[in-house]
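Supplementary Note 3. Input sequence used for the single-chain structure prediction.
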Amino acid sequence: MKRTALGFLSLGAMVALLLVLGQGPFAAASFDFGRYTSYEGVLEEWPYPMLVTSTGRFLLVGEGKHGFEPGNLNGQQVRLRGALIRRGDDQMLELESGSAERIAPGHSHEKPIDLGPIQLTGEIVDSKCYLGVMNPGSGKVHRDCAARCISGGAPPAFLARDSAGEVRVLLLAGADGRALNREVLDYVAEPITVAGHLFRKGTTLVLKADPKDFRRE
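The predicted structure, written as discrete structure tokens, is reproduced below.
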């Protein structure tokens, strides 16, 4: 009996080790939780609030599971404090509550470039968790959290692979360009095919599509 028990314990330890070793590495994503830094730039509202600075573009969200409402700051030169969220070249700021202020008139927004119709298969995630707040921030294990974040105003994103096999993050907007929210919740964390129009605004890719046309795989 003692030898049998020891054998089962050894087998269990080996299985646990194999499961750990079989897990892929986490993505290079980060969140400077609680470390707020001052940023200045022009605040754009389409398709989701974004700060455009001399060094890059940053999606904007509120603290916790909340989005950010720019109010009358849209198109203005602003100063704000944010905690950096980053995954690869994609960046986001979680804003310190009440820190955004207008400092000067803005300038003309960069116009979106229409890249044409496209059909892609991928997964809807909430951008805040995926870009670094949670790791991993995708898949069915993260579905409930993603639904709560999107419901609270975090921009929904669509993950799809490009021709080189690299995963790209596309902001998901309605066919008319409006921000999407609860309309996409039934499709979060599921493999779906989306047919729509692809746009580029600066370094940001935006997929405009009608949720009624989403197709589960």
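The radius of gyration is 20 Å. The chain has two domains: 30-104, 113-216.
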